[in-house]
Amino acid sequence: MAEGCAADRREQSDRRDPSDRRANVDRRSGRDRRSGWIDPNQWPPAAGVVERRSGVDRRSGEDKRIGIDRRAGIDRRVGVGWIRADFGDRLSPEQALNLVADFYSASMDDRFWPAALAKLKETLGADVCALARHDFTRDRGQLEQSVGVDVSLMNTYSDPYAEGNPWLKREDLFREPGAVLVGAEIVKGTDAAASEFFQRWMVPQGLEHQLFGVLERNSSEMQYLFAARSAQSHPFGDADKSLLRRLLPYLQRGLRAGQVLRRSQNVRQLALDTLDLMPMGIVLISLGGAVLATNRVARAVMAERQAFNVGRSGLEIAREGRISRVRDLIADAIQSKGHNQGPRPFGFSVSRPNGQRPLSIWIWPVRALERHSWDDPAAVMFIGDPDYSGDIDEGRLRQLYGLTAAEARVAALLASGYRLDEIAEMLDVAYETTRKHLKRVLSKAHTDRQAELVRMIMTGPGGLVG
C-alpha cells in the first residue's frame, strides 16, 4: 500500500484462497464494510452490513452546528499526496494541506476567514493579509475579508481609495489566475509614495511593501489575495513570490470546492423552503425508511401520530389494521419494476380513528439513483389531507388577479371549500352581495365557472401556503 494514501481494498486483486472464492467468502470484512456497500441483487440488505463511513462524527461542535464537513473536497484520509509542490523549509505539505482546508471551510462560512487569512499572513511573513475584489471597468474594489487591517480603514478602502489605488491600474498584469506580483514591479516607489491611496490608507497603517496573487478572473472583475509588510520589514522578494505562486493553485482548489458545496447547500435549503409552500404533505425518505426531510403540512399530519409513527425500522404507516414499514413498501416497488423501467409510483388511502376523512398517500420511488446505503434517498411520499385548513393568502390573490379586498376574501373562502351561502354568513353580508363579488372575480380571472376558478387558484401560485 502506498504510504500516505488510504487505498481502497476493493480495487486490489482478489487475494482469497480458491476455497473462499468458490464459497463466495470475502474475508476482508464483507464487501468492504467501510463503504456500506449493498448488493443490488440482494434485498433487503443482509444483516450486519454496516455503514462505517458515518462512524463517529469527529467534527467540532461549531462545524456540526453550521453543517460543515471539513473532510469533503479536501479529504484528509488521503494524506498529503495530492499536494505535490515543494514549498521548501517555510511550509511543509501538511501545513499546506491545513491552509487549503482552512480556505475550503472559509469559503463555506465567512466566520472561518480570519483564521484562514491569519495562517496565510504568518506563512508569508506579512503584517496584513486580505481577500479582495477589483472591477477594472468600474475602477472600484473592496476588501471582502482581512486580518491586520485597521478597523477604521477597512470600509474606507472601497470608497474612495480603491479608485485611486495605483497598483491596480495595470489590468494587463492581472489577467491570468495564478499571477503573482510584487508591488514594486507594478509601480515605482516615488510614484507610489505620491499617490493619495498610499498617503491616506497605507501610511497610517505603517504599510509599504505589497504582494498580490490572482485567484479568479471573470470578465473585468478579479478576486485576489493581498499581503503587505511594514516599512521596517524587508520587501517581498522572489522567494515570497515563488511560495505564493506554488500555493495559489491549491488555495484556488480549496476555495472552489467550498464554494460548490456552499452553493449546493444553498440550493438544498431553497428547495426545502419551497416544499413548505406546498398545500400537500411531502416527505423525503431514505432506502432504510428514515425521514430525510418534511414540509410544513407533513409535519402537522405526522405530529398527530394517528397514521404515522417513526420506529426503529424508520417511518411506519398504520393501515388496514396493521403496521406497514415504508422501507418494505419501497423495496417491493424496486423489486417489481418492469424490464428497463424504473420503480413505479403507488398509492393508497389511510383511515384515521378520530372520524377525520382518510389521508391519501402517494409514494414515488426515486429514479436513476444508485443506492448503496440505507441513508441514500429512495422515495418521495406525498400526503393529501382533506381536513387540512391551510389559509389562502388574500393579498396574493389581489396581486395575481387584480381583486379588491372584498373580492379576494370571497375567492379565498371559496377555494377553501366553503359554499357561497356560508361565505355570506361568515362575512355578515347579504347573499346577493357575495354573488356580485363572485361575478367580478370570475370576470377578472377570465372564466365563467366557479369550479374552474377554484382549480385555477389551487393549482397556481394562489394555492401556495404561507
Question: Helix segment count?
Answer: 16
Please compute the radius of gyration using only Cα atoms.
31 Å
* Number of structural domains: 4
Question: What's the end-to-end separation, in Å?
Answer: 57 Å
Name the CATH superfamily assignment of the largest domain.
Answer: GAF domain
Which ranges are low-confidence, i.e. pLDDT below 50, for 5 or more consecutive residues? 1-13, 18-81
Return the average pLDDT rounded to an integer: 81
Which second-level CATH architecture of the largest domain applies? 2-Layer Sandwich
Portion in strands: 15-25%
Biggest sheet strand order reads 2-1-5-4-3
The general outline is: elongated
Which CATH class of the largest domain applies here?
A: Alpha Beta
Residues in helices, as a percent range:
25-40%
Find the structural class using helix and strand composition. Answer: alpha+beta
Order of helices and strands: HHHHEEHEHHHEEHEEHEEEHEEEHHHHH
Query: How many distinct beta strands?
Result: 13
Could you give a short account of the major beta sheet? 5 strands, antiparallel
CATH topology of the largest domain: Beta-Lactamase
